[in-house]
Design goal:
There is one protein chain. By secondary structure, the protein is of the alpha+beta class. Helix content is 35%, strand content 18%. The protein is elongated and about 70 Å long.
Length: 129
Amino acid sequence: MRSADSHHSPGLTPLLQRLAANSDEFGDCIDGRCEPPTVQVTLLEGAREWIAADIAARPTPIAAAVAATGTLLDSGNGARPAVIDATRMIDLIDSGDAEPVDPDDEFGPVSYDGHVWEWSDDTEGYVPT
């Protein structure tokens, strides 16, 4: 019976020897320590300005979170959303972060973040009670 690492003996050592012999990447290795090669990066003219403008045009983290979650921040202290849309609430339930008070009631109250949230036709989303 062969050992689990028997494939290393016939193939691995010659492979490593060929890699060392045929590659410039291992030329600076001394005593098993290798320094990565220095890479010179050349940017096209205007690339730095384009990157800066792209970053500046991105939404703030809060705006991105609202866009991703479909929630509006509470106007009081911003600590929790004032409205959670149905899609986001379903995601919270599916992930186990929220739990329906009555699992048989599709749009019934939901326990989330220490509060009970109920569907509101006015806001078309769940609001804390």
